[in-house]
Fold each of these.
Amino acid sequence: MRNRFGLKDLVVLVAVLVTLGSVWMSMVQEDRRWKEVDVVGKRVQALEQGQARLQSSLDGASLGDVNRRLTNLEEKLAAALERGVAATGGAGTSGGSGATAAPGRRDESWARPGVPIEWQPPYGFDSDPNKVEGMRRGGTFTEAFNAQPSTIVPLVYKDVYGAYVFERITEYLAEWDPMTLKLRGVLAAAWQYAPDGSWLRVRLRDEARFSDGAPVTADDVIWTYKWAMNPQVQAERSRSLLDFIDDITKVDDKTVEYTFNKVLFTNLSAAMGVFTILPKHFYEKFTPTQYNQATGLVMGSGPFKLAMLDPERQWTPGQDIRLVRNEQYWAAKPVYDELRFKVIRDDLARVTAFNNGECDLTTPSSSQFARLRERPDWTAHNDARMWYNIRGGYNFIGWNCGPRNGKPTIFVDKRVRRAMTLLLDRELIKDQLFEGLARVATGPFNQTTAQADPAIKPWPYDLDGARKLLDEAGWTLKPGRDVRTNERGQEMAFEFTYASGSEVTEKLGKYLKDQAAKIGVRVSVRVMDWSVFMQAMDNRDFDAMTMGWSPSSPESDPNQIWHSRFIENQGDNFVQWANAEADRIIEAGRRELNEDARMKQWHRLHAILHDEQPYTFLVERPWLRIVSKRVGNFTEYKNGFQYDELFIRGPGASPSN
Amino acid sequence: MITYIIRRLLLMIPTVIGISFLIFMLVALSPGGVGAALRVAGGGATEATNRAVQEAYLEDRYGLDAPVVVQYIRWLGRISPLKFGQRDQVAPTGERISAPKPLAMPWMKEWLPAPLPAVPKGQRPWPDDATAEQRNVGYARASDAYAQDRAAYVAARTLYREALGPYLRSVGLSHAVKGNKVREGVLAKHTPDRSSEHWPAIESAGRRMLATYERAAGSRANLAAAFEAKPFPQAGVPVIPGIVSVAAPDLGMSFARGRPVSQLIAAALPVTIGLNLIAFPIIYMIAIPAGIASANRAGSLFDVISGTFFVALWSIPTVWAGVLAVGFLANKDYLGWFPVTGLHDAGADRMTYLPSRGADGLWIRGYLLDYVWHVCLPVLCLVYAGFAVLSKQTRAAMLDNFNADYVRTAKAKGVESRVILFAHVFRNSLLPLITMFASIFPAMLAGSVVVERIFAIPGMGSLILEAINLKDRELILANAVMIAMVNILALLLADILYALADPRISYS
């Protein structure tokens, strides 16, 4: 017989292939370990350099103390640095020392004369973990995201999760104070805002420095701005938010001046809060293409830094994101060592991983949240947290107040729109559709903020009132018929459009249909894919629709949603609501730089929207988080929570199973 | 045989072109379109005018403003290994640089306040004896300048289009601007009313468009001159110098993620292949012996039970099985034997490859075991449904042969039943198994959407699903073409294996 390829040969072949593959994989793994060692080596080197720089940069007065400590603790390099910086840079916790402490000695040579300077308080913890009983240093905090960020690089990031990560590593010039929601300086020590709103001068903090020890300077701010404006960098999103800036110029090493081309109330916060400051000396080395394609190229001045910052071996989607404490951090340093983000898209798997102790914090679905917090064995080890903050948006039903395909819809009449609002029992919607984890919205402004008028109460659930309004509007129910008609005999019917994929909107559609039938209105339902839905919005091709808005700042600009200018050109006023008085209020409010006066305008706008009901404002959504009791000092703030204030209790306190 | 293989390989080209054309058109003509998906991905909370300009930038970057057929031909040109015309160059950073993109003409030349400026002759931004460094910097500068000027022009062109709006509405021609295009054919028949109140806005927008066009054309000429001076080594190998060359196919950039498609696939593919390399041998090693055994004792208790059991497994939906596996096998409230998600432990990078004892004398499981432990549940979900089809196929093919004359002859000759089973019957039953085998490869590449989602595995399944959701055209096309090619190759391989397994088959 011929020499055939038999079973024995197959076994040998497979064995050889498996061995070869295995050897190759072990080589790859050894390589990986070798690089890990390399990274540790580099980190030690960086620490040594940082120490040298720190010593040389400290001035005579405070040098003695820190220097002595540093030399004493030379062997424990990392620990020594941590304390050394806490003594000088962590001014926020201890009341401060050095240049920022005594107002009398403040250097004001950078400022324009005659314009008041707004000095910012020292930057530090809002709730100091060091003062919490049971605080423990060290440990890892892990959060599980429910979607995969495709990149965590500032400016070119694509989603909110990317932002959560780079906001830990890089810092803005200013941010919203989590308690008062006023703007406060982070990298900015002080600023001067022109009384007419045409320019802004920002002084950087002297002690602010990047994680490699280099100080944050005016050049970094200007470079970051120029980089964001470079058309080769794919930062369209940030770029479109920065078009109010004419230019940023350098005054001195620590001072920059913005000039604005339009005067809007958002200028101050946007100028300092749209882009985080990137270190020029680090990013300069990369071409725009390299930057655009980067997935994990993040370096900055924040409390954390990437565990591994190697342009050749960046973090890529699919891996856990590992951040470590920035030992060089200039302000109050976190007490735990490592911050880790993992991604688990499946709801069940995510909560199971949480229950198994694989992560310390995550976002459950509403139904999971409602179920878990009822379980005593679960709440013994974990917390279910629900709180309203500026990042939770609202859901609404939008009524098309303008023409659809050239013909006016039935919602042109505001009585019809209000009847629709009266028709919907929003308390019931809240309880049944949102598992009670929401509150009824009164208008477009978040009730956590001062922008909303607290005097405005939601319209009640009132079927008779709805019937009466429809009768008034000329839609009457003739005897023997079950659908209302107007004097021309047209039946009262409309189409409810929504994007597929959400169970809640599906239920809402059914509820609306049932309720409308009760008062003699016929509703048909149209479900679409998200991008088709957006196209229908752009073409104003709908009668009624539902969606949600999420605000990005405590004071949202009503312009793009409510001004009649944005009916044209596929703007965001897709319900085509035009109201001359509202237009005037919006224009005046946007130009008003005085906060109290501006809030009065927003309250007036709120009242008009309440009266007109271009949207039926359904509910405001809170943040839902489940947190392990292992995590200490978790505080609910009006802007979310603060990662750098947490601490991790010892393993003993973690769930026992 | 060889000619047969070559013929089949050549046939691949029209097949792939046909498939890619179909998918390209499906994506391009689907409601919402590619542009809409881009905008959704970008999150659209900006003012309307900004948004139009922003969209124009994006369309310009990805060439979405050209007619669909032109876009398709461009795409073909990029993925074809045969390149025509000017060769790309490779910058020191490894980036592939193509000749500068042409500029779109300003809208409605006839309506502009001044004639179109002549395109100046480009200046190469470095002297003849420039060093490599000087060329590098010079090229980067020219390319920056062109990007700036082109962006300004794209914005001005969009604003001109917007400025036309009020006027066209006033003369009842609003259909002349459709989406992001001005239909010049419609406007050519119209004599503009220059005394209209809307005309000054058009004129000033036109002037701005002209000025930016002139600057962009100038810097484009400079960049083209710089490119022609070949500052960097050229990519690929020339076939006919200056006309045809061979270079690696370029799969393009993912719209939604802003990264090269090849990088994304290179990251996801090993994950999926790794999983399947474990899963498929398990299926084969269980299903084929089971099929042989049940054919050998057809009608026995084993045959009935194994058949029922496999079909029962096959009927369980993967979604449900995955949820059960996570809920019971991974949940520490129940068994908790396996990790819930992921492919590796947090510290896996620092582990040794094989299990070992750490410095502190503690047992370290090692990278290999860690991987195996993590993939247990996903592999379980991948394999359990695969037994039924394969074992039933084996059983049926074996039974056919058991009843054949040659088996009776062999039995009559007194050949050992083991020899009959493996040397005669099994060998002759291989053909259907080979057919099955050919269908495995494409399945290996495609990955499993459900399993990958439940266990948070960043494989091909989730990559493709996300690409489809976001209408990420380049990513969808690259994946589809890749899977189509592997499918065709696998079918070819099956045909070749037929010939090897069965001497009666020949292709000459």
Amino acid sequence: MNLKIVVLAKQVPDTRNVGKDAMKEDGTVNRGALPAIFNPDDLNALEMALEMKDRMRNVEVVVITMGPTRAADIIREAIFRGADKGYLLTDRKFAGSDTLATSYALFKAVQKINPDLIVCGLQAIDGDTAQVGPQIAEKLHIPQITYVEKLNDITENHMMLTRRLERGVETVKVNFPALITVHASANPCRPMHAKRLLKFKHAHTLSELQDQNRDYTDLFKEHPYLRIEEWNAESVEADESYLGLSGSPTKVKEIESVVLTQKESKRFTDKDQDVDQLMKELLETRVIG
Amino acid sequence: MENFFLDNKHLAFHLSHPLMKSIVKMREKNYTESKSYDYAPLDYEDAIDSYEKVLEVIGEIAGEIIAPNAESVDKEGVTLANNVVTYAKGTQQNHEVLKRAGMYGLSLPRKYDGLNFPMVISIMVAEIIARADASFSNIWSLQDCAETIHEFANEELKSKYLPMVHQGYTCSMVLTEPDAGSDLQAVMLKAHYDQEAKCWRLNGVKRFITNGDADIQLVLARSEEDTTDARGLSCFLYDRMDNAVTVRRVENKLGIKGAPTCELVYKNAPAQLIGDERMGLIKYVMSLMNAARLGIGAQSVGLAEAAYRVAFKYANEREQFGKKIIDFPPVYEMLASMRAKIDGVRSLLYETSRFVDMYKLYTYESKERSLSNEERDQMKYYQRFADVYTPLLKLFASEYCNQIASDALQIHGGTGYMKDFPVERLVRDARITNIYEGTSQLQVVAAIRGINSGVFLKRVKEYEAINLKPEWQVLKNTLIEMTNRFERSLEIAKAWNNAEMFDFNSRRLVEMMGNIIIGYLLLIDTDHNDAYAHSAHIFIRMGDAQNHEKENYIAVFTESDLAAYQSIK
């Protein structure tokens, strides 16, 4: 059998290494000041898909990302790390999407591939909603297994997975097709492989090449594997009313920039009465006890 | 994200040296390999881009995985149980990641699964990895053994073992014995041919073997009965799968604790001959040692870079007497001198690597077709330089590495003496660099040949002939004057007509020459990129002062000076 896996990945601003320019004055993320990276949880997701490919024959790992032209970077990165190929879902019509509109667009793209399994990272570090994966599963009417930490077993028909939950772990069995979201505690992604890096470093989308004014017609003809396919709203047959701002019921009402001031900290000395006071406060606020 | 390639612009600078064009073109057989391998470069720019991309991946692995592991690796060391040596957990992770990234066998030909990268690049990788963890760089760099297998072993051995190197099987060079350290001619481990099993058998003890429990071991052994010198020694390949070697102990060392140093007992161990009998030490091991010395040069530069960086950071953070300590003259003098030495010796490292690349490429070429006279001259030209630059590099890089690590600790003051900061580990790790693969004293013995033969001077005259921008003329005049004074000192030393007096002063002469060569390299670098101007200035002034001192010593040296020293015996 031929198992087709789609990994959904997102290019995000690196919010883990924030400098003083990381936020704009209005409290929104200053994307220009932060390097664009492969969303960390999505790397765990990619690794899990690649582990499936290691364990079984005839597994194809396809990466889909939705974003601007430069998001092709993470498709290349995924290919360098072992993915077979990737699709860039890009269209101005997607701009301003909330999780519902995003999951709709991705759902349409996934439908086009019709995979046996969809693997997502648990959440993206820019939005932290963890909603997109589950929403896609709902739209596809397939089971969703969230918080997956470990792949215990995989056969042609099903998988055994361990979920990392707040108070322990849970092992579940699920048949294909299914969607899973992978927890950050799962295996870290394998490194980029030198030979894949050198083989696929010239992989580009058509728009990238047009932007660079390079004629790669011959190169694509000779090496079709170097072409990263681009899809837009039309090519995934999406209903425009569900896309972008018009498809996004979530509206940001207000953003408040919270600056912690020194007033909010309290100083206790090592005197007995201070320690008593501290214990009392901690008990009262139910931090302990 | 720490990236030890991207954060060190000096590496990209050396990658852009004009000779790289010739090296890459020969290495890539005029870019014809791209027809048979989809990961081979299409042209020079594509090749350099490939090197940079791979270096970037390694730089990230070094910065994000190997360096953070270094402290626990140092603490954990290695363990020996049931005749198996186990690396520290961090070392295992480092090895595993580089293996999975397909980075082993970087410089092997593609037909043996390698990436066919030039020596310059694998040396750069060795430098990057040593900056992250010097002990791990030993395990990593021992894959140079593959180069010896590739150059001298038969096709059967090559096609079996070289792809294994790419898969991450480890290597070791098994040379030293209890009574054969610097003097490898005294090697006793016995090899005899077993007619029945149709293989060689090894019997005896080896000591101080770095990564001794490796999968693929190159063993120097006495194959000729009743011989006592180098001509009775051959080189063998022992495969660990044959399970005929006991690891008697692993040493408890001052530094590089993550790299196991083993005592090995070979008990009728089956082995296969590399190349021809009797050529073991004379040809193969000498070649292996030269590669290893270049590797130690890279390790020393990487370690020195690490030490400089922690010292620079500390000097900018630590305040005393109301200001940062970097603002005090003794501290900034130390830091700027460290920087100048690193810039200089790194330039020597890549100059030497390019010589090695060029002559090896011609050597491989000569095995496939007969070279033209001009090509043969080129091969000899680069080989002569490679032969004498290698010990000069090993001498300077390892001594500087020690000085820089020591100064870095000094800048930390008492804090640096504590285990809380990484600098004490760097000092301990540095201490081996001027001992193993030939002590500094032995590097002088090898490098002095280049002084006697005039090979160094020939190269210096070539540097002198390069037209530099007028603003560097003052420093160049100093170098010309230093060269003149060197020649006078050499004449004086030769006129003694006394071998022992000459030997006694040989280190002075070699160091005078080294100062001139590194001075020129820095000045030429400055001509390409004036970011090196300060280092060139500092180094040439420092070298000039040192050379004056040595010149003065030699100028009035007499037999009675020598006799005073000899009285200690």
